[in-house]
Amino acid sequence: MNIHNYLTKAKYLSLGLLISGATLAADKNPSSKFIKEGVWRGVFTVSESQVPFNFELKGKDAEHAVFTLINGSRRDNFHVKAIGKDSVYIKMNTYDAALVAKIEDDGKISGEYRSLVPGFRGNSLPFIAEYGKSYRFVEPGKDVAPKADLSGKWEIKTYSKEAVPASIAILKQKGNKLTGVVMTVVGDTRELEGTVQGDEFALSGFTGPSPFIIKGKINADGSISGEEGFGIYKNLKFDAAKNETVELPDPYKLTFLKEGYKKLDFSFPGIDGKAVSLSDNKYKGKVVIVEIIGTWCPNCTDQTVFLSPWFNKNRNRGVEAIAIGFEQKDSLDYAKYTLGKLKEKYAINYDIAFGGLADKKLVAQKLPALNKFIAFPTTIIIDRNGDVREIYTGYTGTVTGKYHKDYEKKFNQLLDKLIAEPAPESAAVKYTALHPGN
Q: Does residue 411 sit in the same domain as residue 370?
């Protein structure tokens, strides 16, 4: 999502060396404590609010452990490192953040969710976790009968001094259990899990980026009112009413080329040391997918999870892709680290370039053909002639159901159409010259 600068990854080299050394020492010490296998319930303290989350630990030591965050039907896995005799370090994969925690004598875990971005000071959230508790908000046996069924689509009106993207919620309720997702024009919250108790409800989510919570009351007229909390960043009040026909603005029409432009032009440093430009020969006569992303952005990760396997399956059909990363630090060395981790984890076989600092105004300046830049990610599809044929703002993840299926269907239909179009004669001539006899 673009509306919030989610926390992300890498600390200093000295921290990495410290962790590596401490891990080795812990592995050799048979008296070291480790997280107990099984399910856990954690609670972040955000200002005066509590944001619960659930996870499972499998493996009896750091070498074999898998830490899994649980959100409804969604599962996100992370590796664990032991630090010293009684502490653990859980890196949030490609996000530049980590859970750093101590295993207490009573078996509980206490620690903090910490930003690892160099210079990103003060960004941490304390948490505690207890073993054997699988509930989210309410202990078993203490549920209160819900006064309404919140299943359905909700039109949300958010109150803020600053402009806030339009949003809708898609909720599913079964008894007291509530799951769902909040969608905006720039992305979605991923899957949320929560409860309805009497005339009150709550949902939370934690998948690696900063945790999210939404809670409120069911009003007498069936509408709901409450507050959204975005980790350490901000809280926004909202009202919402059921509206099964409400839709967000068309993501295919929000970002477009300015009058007089048909093509996109750029040159950015690649993380492999070579400049990446649409004028490079490898892109001539090809259909090109350009992704504007950031490793700090969960919806960008979800888009990468979609695009990378798609590209690996279709790369020999006359299609190329480029990811332009805008990161939380304006440093090519830092971007090589963060974007390199993304490339490694998701088996990316297309070019990745560094665009600069993660700032929407900066993106618009560096890509002046765009009318404006609204969201990370943004997908730009270019035909064999180098003309921009489609721009999609944001991303709709799998949790959005039919919205994701519609996106996937339209994406494949357009790519099939563009790939089937003939390559321009100049590109065909150049290909023949480079591949005589074919």
A: yes
